[in-house]
Every structure is written in C-alpha cells, then in structure tokens.
Amino acid sequence: MNNIRVLAGGLVVIVLALAGGTGYLIYERIQNEVNVEPKATKQDIIELKAEQAETKKDVGALKESDKVQSAKISVLEDEVAVLKVKDEQKTKLIEKLEQDKASKEELDAVKAEQAKDRERMDAAAAELEQARKERKEIREQLKAQGERIDEQEKRLEELEKKGDARDQELAALRAELAELKKQLGLGDPVPEN
User: Fold this and answer.
1) Residue 111's Cα: distance from chain center in Å?
2) Rounded to the nearest 5°, which phi and psi values hold at 104?
3) Which of 48, 132, 146, 148 has a CA between 20 and 30 Å from the CA of residue 115?
4) H/E segment holding residue 118
5) Any residues with CB less than 8 A from the CB of 173 and at least 6 apart, and which?
6) Helix axes 2-34, 104-184, angle to 10 degrees
7) Are 180 and 31 within 8 A, CB to CB?
8) By the 8 A CB rule, do 153 and 142 touch?
9) Angle at 186 between CA 182 and CA 188, to 5 degrees
10) Which helix (H) or strand (E) holds 174?
11) Dihedral angle at the C-alpha atoms of 38, 40, 42, 47, nearest 10 degrees?
C-alpha cells in the first residue's frame, strides 16, 4: 500500500512538473510574441510621413514650374500671333509695291524685313513647341507624384491599421499571459494596453 502511495505521489509530481514545464514554454512563447518591437511600425510611419512631406514639396516645385511654363507659352503664343500678322502685312505690302512698280531697293528692304520677321517667328514657334513639351513633362511628373502620394497614403493607412491591430493583439496576448501567470502561480501582472 505504501508503494502505491509513493507511486501515486510520484505520478502527481511528474504531472505537475509536465504541466509547469508546458506552462513555462507557453509563457516563453507569449513573452517572445509580446516583446515584438512596436517601434518598427512607428518608425515606418515616421519615415513614410517624412517621404510624404518631401513628395509634397516636390509637387509644390512642379506646380510652380507648370505656372512658369504656362505663362511662357502664353507669351510665346502672343509673339507668334503678332509675327504672323506682321508677315501677312508684309506680304500684302510686297504685293502692293510690286503692283505699283516701286523701286527695287524699297522692295528688297521690305523683303529683308519680312525674312527677319519669319526667322523670329520660326524661332518663337520652336521655343513655343519646346515650352509645350516641357510643360507636358511637368504635368506627367505631377501626375506621377499624385499617384505616389496616393500610394503613400494607402501605405500609411495600412501601417496605422496594422499598428492598431497589433496593439489590440498585444493587449489580448498580455491578458492571456496574465491569466497564465496567475494559473501557474508566477505572479499577478497587470495587463498593459
């Protein structure tokens, strides 16, 4: 009978040791999960906000460049229009001088003036075309930056949601850990939120 009591007592000690060991392993696992660095997510959010600020600064510069190019285009369009009108007037003047049989020097002077005006008109038209291309590139960059901002906002929102979910998960794990510690008799920690 004594042997049975000793055997039963030994079995109880073994079962308690196994339960304590298993509880300790569970405790260690929860501790490892709970001690995940939440600063990584906060750091990601900080970096993303800094990136957003830089992108917004770039967008401001691009918008300013777009305004400058638009003004330049407007001035060049006006200049080309004025030069076209002058060219038409010179053409009519040349025709009139030819009809009136004006002197060759006078006719040559008007034709030379018209040639200079056409050169200026061609140069202004080329500059206008270049300004339009630059403005188009700026607007494409603005569009890309807008898409980049949208992407950053989505990532920020996801990180904030993950942070909220992680905080809730950590609170649940801490509560579970407190319950396990209480069951194992390791103390009564207060769950942190």
Assistant:
1) 56
2) -65, -35
3) 132
4) helix 104-184
5) 30, 33, 34
6) 160
7) no
8) no
9) 50
10) helix 104-184
11) 180
- Report the run of H or E that residue 50 belongs to, with start and end: helix 39-99
pLDDT score of 39: 46
Angle at 87 between CA 120 and CA 135, to 5 degrees: 45
Sequential pLDDT tens for the chain (193 residues): 677 777 777 767 676 666 666 666 666 776 666 655 444 467 777 787 788 888 888 888 888 888 888 898 898 889 889 889 988 888 888 888 778 777 778 888 888 888 998 899 899 899 989 999 998 998 888 888 878 777 877 877 777 777 677 777 777 777 877 776 676 666 555 555 5
Nearest Cα to 80, choosing from 43, 126, 46, 49?
Answer: 126
Q: What does the alpha-carbon distance between residue 124 and residue 76 come to, in Å, rounded to a whole number?
A: 6
pTM above 0.70, yes or no: no
The DSSP secondary structure of 4-35, one letter per residue, reads HHHHHHHHHHHHHHHHHHHHHHHHHHHHHHHT
For the chain, what's the residue count? 193
pLDDT of residue 95: 83
Q: Which tokens go with 21?
A: 């060991």
Query: Where do the DSSP E strands lie in 92-143?
Result: none
Residue given tokens 């407190």 in the structure block: 178
Domains of the chain, by residue range, sit at 55-168
